[in-house]
Specification:
This protein is mainly beta and 221 residues long. The chain has a single domain (8-21, 33-218), classed as Jelly Rolls (Sandwich). The protein has three helices and 15 strands. The chain has helices at residues 13-17, 47-50, 116-122; strands spanning 31-32, 37-40, 51-54, 57-63, 78-83, 91-99, 107-114, 125-132, 138-141, 146-148, 156-163, 168-173, 176-182, 189-197, 205-218. The strands form two sheets. Strands 1, 3, 4, 6, 11, 12, 13 and 15 form an eight-stranded antiparallel beta sheet that branches. The protein has a seven-stranded antiparallel beta sheet with strand order 2-5-14-7-8-9-10. A hairpin with a 5-residue loop joins strand 8 (125-132) and strand 9 (138-141). It is globular, with a radius of gyration of 16 Å. The chain starts with 12 loop residues before the first helix and ends with a strand.
């Protein structure tokens, strides 16, 4: 039987999500984007065993023994939401409320992926947010710099902004700017969130809860 429960603290999402604020990257010239995504999950399990929606709280789960998300794919296990369509210019911002268990480790919970046609030239990802159990539950730029700590088993607001034209990415955790970087010259990207296993001592089971997903777009033209 698929696991259908969420931890009890997850049901606070409804009240917490209502406090999430509008985009941090700017206050004028923004338009709300429809939130649309495809779900990817391991081939060795039914979708309902790795991904479920409980009143707008999306739960992604992966075991470190799972297979890839398509037959013949050689990437590590993942259960992710792949947002569509790709974006190819201007400035776009993602926002959500997220919760990951304090005792789980070694996986990506958000990424900016380069479009398929450009990934070979510019690399598969422009940014990845890794989750580790250290420091009370922390998020990192890949497995490097720690961006925020003491987040384990708590809802936190994540905002990620990419200005494609000016090649800039910014990240906020709980409305605090924690990361700014430049990107390469690719023009095609898409967002992903969920659970994607990494090499950094992954737990046997890895989870994330996601709710109140919002997106905005503006043109620099």
């Amino acid at each position: 039987m698929p696991v259908r429960f969420l931890p009890l603290f997850s049901f606070a999402a409804v009240s917490l999500a209502t406090t999430a604020s509008a985009q941090l990257g700017g206050q004028t010239g923004w338009a709300s984007c429809p939130v649309k995504f495809d779900v990817q999950w391991p081939t060795n399990a039914a979708r309902a065993e790795r991904y479920w929606d409980n009143n707008g709280v999306y739960h992604c789960r992966v075991y470190n023994t799972d297979g890839a998300f398509t037959a013949g794919n050689t990437t590590r296990p993942r259960t992710e939401q792949r947002f569509v369509p790709d974006y190819r210019g201007g400035e776009i911002q993602y926002q959500s409320m997220e919760l990951a268990p304090a005792n789980e480790n070694g996986y990506c919970i958000f990424q900016i992926h380069t479009g398929d046609a450009e990934s070979r030239e510019y690399g598969a990802t422009a940014f990845m947010l890794f989750w580790f159990s250290k420091d009370g539950g922390s998020v990192h730029d890949y497995s490097g710099q720690e961006l925020a700590a003491n987040l384990g088993s708590k809802w936190f607001q994540l905002n990620v902004d990419q200005d494609v034209d000016n090649r800039t990415i910014k990240v906020w955790i709980n409305r605090q700017l924690v990361w700014t970087q430049k990107t390469k010259d690719a023009r095609d990207f898409y967002f992903k969130d969920g659970v994607y296993v990494q090499r950094d001592d992954p737990s046997a089971c890895m989870d994330v809860n996601i709710t109140d997903i919002r997106m905005w777009k503006r043109s620099n033209g």
